[in-house]
UniProtKB/TrEMBL annotation:
Occurrences of domain ABC transporter (ranges): 5-234
Top-level taxon of the source organism: Bacteria
Organism field: Shimia haliotis
SUPFAM superfamilies listed in its UniProt record: P-loop containing nucleoside triphosphate hydrolases
Family matches, as InterPro entries: AAA+_ATPase, ABC_transporter-like_ATP-bd, ABC_transporter-like_CS, ABC_transporter_ATP-binding, P-loop_NTPase
UniProt GO molecular function: ATP binding; ATP hydrolysis activity
Pfam families: ABC_tran
UniProt keywords, alphabetically: ATP-binding, Nucleotide-binding, Transport
Transmembrane feature ranges: none
CDD domains: ABC_DR_subfamily_A
Protein name: ABC-2 type transport system ATP-binding protein
């Protein structure tokens, strides 16, 4: 598929000399969901702000739908929807009016049917006449998304969209994002919730210190970097790993009642069969076996540590 967002060697240096973005290059395909993961201060919000024209880049180029975000700001911004981290809404304006007003800001003609469609899509139709001050935090987040969608953008940026939202509402928001993708909207989200990226993203980008450490399809990333651990429960506890098992990557856990073996899922052979035979030959007796796959969070933490090294 064609790239709808094309970022080329993007750099941002603030007046004090702080380099927030250090040569970021990234292509985002039309219709995909890309999750950007990174700790506080990693550069996620700066990257989104630069793409959306809120912050000017120090160097490099960003194209959105073929429009340069600096040279053709209006053309680029017309196809971008942005949901910021902060909830900033006029408290005493009705939901339907605040969404309609946002549509007007982009020069779009009044379209009550379009506003109704967006509000129903986001389960806000029943709240259309409510003032925003009366809404819960989760509903206010939905209003922000409705405002961002009011001018029919092709690209939607969600900057920490579920921050401060409880688990149930967070999962509801994931459903909303999935529905938007089904409609062909390209979605880029930043998040601190690893499970959010794992649940809904097509690709995952890891950013830290203003540098993009990795961008890869989520499933491929899990397969390439994920490790599995085999926990071998023993019938009787031991105080140390037998010398005959020294060749294997084993750790003694659970006060000596289990052995933990870590292996690479990419390897042609896991070595488990040989290990189990060696354990038996060493005179140890198995009680149970358990395997565990590395989560995206484990991978993320490892990548950030590598980037900081």
């Amino acid at each position: 598929m064609a790239a709808i967002v094309d970022i080329r060697d993007l750099r941002k240096v603030y007046s004090g000399g702080f380099e927030a973005l250090k040569g970021v290059s990234l292509s985002i395909e039309e219709g995909e969901i890309l999750a950007l993961l990174g700790p506080n201060g990693a550069g996620k919000t700066t990257l989104i702000s630069t793409i959306c024209g809120i912050t000017n880049p120090s160097s490099g180029q960003v194209l959105v739908g073929g429009h340069d975000v600096v040279k053709d700001y209006r053309g680029a911004r017309a196809i971008i929807g942005l949901v910021p981290q902060e909830i900033s809404l006029e408290p005493f304006t009705k939901v339907k009016d605040t969404v309609a007003f946002s549509r007007g800001l982009f020069g779009k003609p009044r379209d009550d049917a379009a506003i109704e469609k967006i509000l129903k899509q986001l389960s806000l139709w029943d709240k259309r006449n409510a003032r925003t001050v009366e809404l819960s935090g989760g509903m206010k987040r939905r209003v922000l998304i409705a405002k961002a969608l009011s001018h029919d953008p092709k690209v939607l940026f969600l900057d920490e969209p579920t921050a401060g939202v409880d688990v149930e509402l967070r999962k509801d928001m994931w459903d909303v994002v999935a529905e938007l993708k089904a409609l062909g909207v390209t979605i880029i989200l930043t998040t601190h919730y690893i499970e959010e990226a794992e649940a809904i993203a097509d690709r995952v980008g890891v950013i830290n210190g203003g540098q993009l450490l990795l961008v890869e399809e989520k499933d491929a990333l899990m397969q390439r970097l994920g490790q599995k651990t085999l926990q071998i429960e023993l019938s009787e506890s031991v105080t140390e790993i037998p010398a005959a098992l020294a060749a294997y990557d084993l750790d003694l856990v659970k006060d000596g009642s289990a052995l933990r073996y870590t292996y690479d899922t990419r390897a042609e052979s896991t070595g488990i069969t040989r290990l189990l035979a060696a354990i038996s030959e060493a005179g140890l007796h198995l009680r149970d076996l358990q395997t565990q796959q590395s989560s995206l969070e484990d991978i993320f933490v490892g990548l950030v540590k590598e980037g900081a090294a």
